[in-house]
Specification:
This protein is an alpha/beta fold. Helix content is 35%, strand content 15%. The chain is built from 12 helices and 11 strands. Bound molecules: pyridoxal-5'-phosphate. Pyridoxal-5'-phosphate (PLP) binds next to loops. The site of pyridoxal-5'-phosphate has 13 residues, from loops.
């Protein structure tokens, strides 16, 4: 794994914060130029979020040294580029249609992108990917369940790719809590080039708090810790998330999955709906007769969905997030009216 790291990062002497150098318990802290008066937030937060990782470690069955916590999933994605991708020289592989953030991050880091479309079933083509792979292929992004298509990637293909791909393989599991599938976190001991991304933004209902998780071999986690901003998660985020992790997301998941079945069933009855792709997530990808017209109509009714019709492989497709029972009923009523226009 270390041979994949950019030379400047391999040699980096990271900034050592006051709270990093002394992490024990003392009576008086005069080391960090903090304000001594208790505002509730006058002290710098734990740079490595020990208490939070401890709890996440027991929930996710992953060791503390295999966990990185960031400001949303965007932070670990950004760090992986900074650690592994020499701008212009190296490249990354993405499999569209998929989450747009990988490509944006690549552009920010001036890293070329090789796009290899998912096949008709929205599955990765192992041979095509390996044909393109070279020593400059630093990251392969796999998203499972995939956004915006909603399907799980075949776990056997994913594992074969982890075994054969010469660079880092990121498995983005933002929607894994909704899926009938186990996480790839159980494989991080086995594969030092595997990074699994999860988030509290979807099933846990905490998108506003911005907490993304990366699970990987400790040597990758160490590089992420060295490159990140010293205090990347505020004390408010750390303490709030620590409390909220006691509330299981199971009731949310149960309700959203039941509503997804209901919504899918009702949507099928509309003649303008051509196809609903099977979903293992909290959204449905729906192919309709005229996506732009439907999208604009729903906007006029105060309902925002995601128009994906310009995405290659998703012509005339919209993505609908499963809402509450009331929200879904509101949507269906508006669609009833649409058919009568
Ligand atoms: C929503 C989503 C995320 C989560 O992003 P956060 O920055 O953690 O909110 C990550 N990956 C995919 C594919 C997503 O759809």
């Amino acid at each position: 794994m270390e041979h994949l790291v950019r030379p400047n990062i391999r040699e980096l002497k990271p900034y050592s914060s006051a709270r990093h150098e002394y992490s024990g318990h003392a009576s008086v802290y005069l080391d960090a130029n903090e304000n001594p008066f208790p505002t509730g937030h006058n002290r710098y937060p734990d740079p490595l979020q020990f208490d939070l990782k401890n709890k996440i470690s027991s929930i996710k069955k992953v060791e503390i040294g295999q966990i990185f916590l960031g400001n949303g999933s965007d932070e670990p994605i950004d760090l992986l580029f900074r650690i592994f991708c020499q701008p212009i020289e190296d490249h990354v592989l993405v499999l569209p249609p998929t989450y747009g953030m990988y490509e944006v991050a690549a552009q920010i880091h001036d890293t070329p992108i090789i796009s290899i479309s998912l096949n008709k079933e929205f599955q990765p083509d192992y041979d095509k990917i390996m044909e393109k792979a070279s020593p400059h292929s630093k990251i392969l992004f796999l998203c499972s369940p995939n956004n915006p298509t909603g399907n799980l990637l075949n776990p056997l293909t994913v594992e074969r790719l982890i075994q054969s791909f010469p660079g880092i393989v990121v498995v983005d599991e933002a929607y894994i809590d909704f899926a009938a599938s186990s996480s790839f976190t159980s494989k991080i001991k086995e594969y030092p080039n595997l990074v699994v991304l999860q988030t509290l933004s979807k099933a846990w209902g905490l998108a506003g708090l911005r907490l993304g998780m990366a699970f990987a071999h400790p040597s990758i986690i160490n590089f992420m810790n060295r490159v990140k901003a010293p205090y990347n998660l505020s004390s408010l985020t750390q303490s709030t998330v620590l409390d909220l992790l006691d509330q299981s997301p199971a009731p949310y998941i149960q309700s959203i999955l039941a509503e997804r079945v209901f919504l899918e069933d009702r949507l099928m009855s509309f003649s303008f709906v051509k196809k609903i792709y099977p979903s293992q997530a909290n959204f449905l990808l729906v192919q309709c007769a005229d996506a732009n017209r439907l999208y604009n109509y729903l906007l006029s009714q105060g309902i925002v969905i995601r128009n994906r019709s310009s995405v290659p492989g998703c012509s005339n497709c919209i993505r609908i997030t499963v809402g509450t029972k009331e929200e879904n009923q509101f949507l269906l009523k508006a669609l009833d009216k649409f058919t009568q226009l």
